[in-house]
Amino acid sequence: MTFEQILAKVREMAKGYDVSGTNFLAVQINLTGDNGGVFYVEIKDGKVSIEPYEYNDRSCGITISGDNFIKLIDGKLDAVAAFTFGKLKVDGDLGKALEFANLLK
Predict the structure, then answer these.
(1) CA separation for the pair 13, 35 (Å, rounded)
(2) Does the structure show a pLDDT above 80 at 105?
(3) pTM for the complete prediction?
(4) 8 Å CB contact between 96 and 62
(5) Could you point out which of 16, 41, 52, 86 has its C-alpha 20 to 30 Å from the C-alpha of 7?
């Protein structure tokens, strides 16, 4: 799956996110590997924005391979297990990363 396809899939999934209990969340996703790239997911004022840019004032950053990210959003990889086994790295607020992971479920 290309970076653009991953981004499109996340945007489609975001339409189903229940963000009613989230005041603000900004997560930068750093995808590594052949189809790597950077994008962010921002939840603000009840709206979800997903853009292919770096986010300087992010709550946290997540670094993961493109293949493992696809598994994560497809429900085939648990975020906590991925973090524990070093498949996913978090820079910043770990609690916000867990909040983001719960949105993906």
Answers:
(1) 19
(2) no
(3) 0.91
(4) no
(5) 86
